[in-house]
Amino acid sequence: MSRRVLVAGVGMVPFTTPSKSEMYDVMAAGAIRAAIADAGVDYAVVRQAYAGYVYGDSTSGQYALYRVGLSGVPVVNVNNNCSTGSSALWLARQAVESGAAECVLAFGFEQMRRGALKAQWDDRPGAFSRLGDVSETVQGVYEDAPEAAQWFGGAGVSYAEKFGTKPETFAAISVKARQHAANNPFAVFRDRVTLDEVMASPHIFGPLTRLQCCPPTCGAAAAVLCSEDFARSHGLRTNVAIKAQAMTTDTAVSFEGDMMNLVGYSMTKEAARQVYEASGVSPDDVRVVELHDCFTANELITYEAIGLTPEGTAAKFIADGDNTYGGRVVTNPSGGLLSKGHPLGATGLAQCAELVWQLRGEAEARQVEDVNVALQHNIGLGGAAVVTLYEKLS
To answer: Of 9, 132, 134, 385, whose CB count within 10 A is highest?
Structure first.
């Protein structure tokens, strides 16, 4: 990275279910105003904006941003499926790093509908058709299970067959997620659940039960990025920076018949490798992670993809409590996608907000001790994986 990029401000609105949601522009404006206020800047100094959303018409980003002000700055709309928010962040970071702009806004939002995700256009090739073809070849088609659950559940089946992982191991991740979310006022589901309750919820696919699948969620989040010179000249915080960041997409291995690679394992592993190499930081240095737990199966395989624990040891990692407070690394202190919620365009920026609060020591009851670096992982099938490493500066 040629020029240090600071995260000057972050903000989000409480995530909610579709039945209780405000309109997307209202949510987005709320998150943007919160991030700008947190940064302590005037909206007029923002020189570019990157708006992330999946379900919405073209230029919805402008419509949302115009609620905050009509400044005339460039607005770029970003759609990279579930990694949309972190993709907007990736673009904003590059704009500041390159010197193209001194102060940039990244925001994401989603106003989702109830039910499983589905394609909006049925008169043209689907972006997921290749994934569907591979999944059908490997494990067949199950009309009673959502497609995404078949893919991620299939990854869980593949892992369990290789390493003998029990269904209860996957379910324990949901228990942990709810325990963390209980302390997060922005989370959708804050009620704790027991292992028995998770296991007894309706079966979806493979090791997955309903309480192991993230819910359709509405919400918004935002971040203000700037250069060090800009921060100092405007009297802003200079204590959190993006130390390294990488985005990867599918390679041929994604479609060679391994369900774990189909849902992003190889993409994630490569993105994490690039970040560790660029930063000089080891996974052993990381004490807090926000990772993409759209299903418990994906959280489990991601532990290994990002190097938190060696291949084949995720069950022990979970059983030993090394994925929570008192263990080696706290994963998803926010409650993650499983409990905080997963409004697709907002997720990556909500992860950013949580980790910035952790590095500042402002996470209140969720605060992880001795945090100097924080790791973020966000994926979108089709596909993109974004891994971001933040650091606390003196």
So the answer is: 385
